[in-house]
Design a protein that fits this description.
154 residues; mainly beta; OB fold (Dihydrolipoamide Acetyltransferase, E2P); five-stranded mixed beta barrel; 2 helices; NA-bd_OB-fold; single-stranded DNA binding; Primosome_PriB/ssb
Length: 154
């Protein structure tokens, strides 16, 4: 039986990321994200539904998120669902679904809390300024095209 577990979320952080290190030196970052859904009821009334999701990032991604993200900042997360199950002190069985971050992208402007323009969760991500195309200026001429075959059938 085939299965597929993929989640893509974009929302705002509900709290500052919490970074911890395991005894083995692995970084773990816990963060919460709020995802909003705006819809119109049958009566024509606009409503907003908010879903709060706990997320966990590991390794270099955890360190990057902890360093550059803060409460209120916008973030796009790509990951997978994980079900945590445990027993409370009172003996009740408890469970919670969370997202394990596999990739992420900073969204929004940098004025939302400062930070870097690193665009992905991979180690050694590129800086925004170095990866963005140069700004356009009015009156700028395009470079001459070379070796263009005028008989291209499309």
């Amino acid at each position: 039986m085939a299965s597929f577990n993929k989640v893509i979320l974009m929302g705002n952080l509900t709290r500052d990321p919490e970074l911890r290190m395991t005894p083995g030196g692995m970084a773990i970052c816990k963060l919460g994200i709020a995802v909003n859904r705006v819809f119109t009821t049958k009566e024509g009334e606009k409503r907003e539904e908010v879903t709060f999701i706990d997320c966990d990032a590991f390794g270099r991604q955890a360190e990057t998120l902890s360093k550059y993200m803060s409460k209120g900042r916008s973030l796009l997360i790509e990951g997978r669902l994980r079900l945590d199950q445990w027993e409370s002190k009172e003996g009740e069985k408890r469970s919670k679904i969370s997202v394990v971050v596999e990739n992420f992208q900073f969204t929004g402007d940098r004025g939302e809390g400062g930070g870097s323009g690193e665009s992905s969760g991979s180690a050694g991500g590129s800086n925004y300024e170095s990866s963005a195309p140069p700004p356009r200026t009015t009156g700028q001429q395009r470079p001459p095209e070379q070796d263009i075959d005028e008989d291209v059938p499309f």
